[in-house]
Amino acid sequence: MSDMNKYLTLREVAGHFGVSYPTVSRWCDMGLIEYLRLPSGIRRIPASEIKRLEHEIGKDQVSAGEYRQQV
Known about the structure:
Blueprint: E1 7-8, H1 10-17, H2 21-29, E2 36-37, E3 43-46, H3 47-57, H4 59-63, H5 66-70
Antiparallel strand pairs: 1-3, 2-3
Helix pairs in contact: 1-2
């Protein structure tokens, strides 16, 4: 499966950026991260969103929590 078709859990995204699960959930609620909602209600985040965030603001800034402060 290519990265463009891969979906990650909120917990995986949180671990990747070094933030908490609730932080990633808030990012989704605020519209900062695009996600797919499964019929069960669980959210999945496309791997392309991770790459977009890293490119847009840099992984170090996201890890430091600066992404939340830019909004």
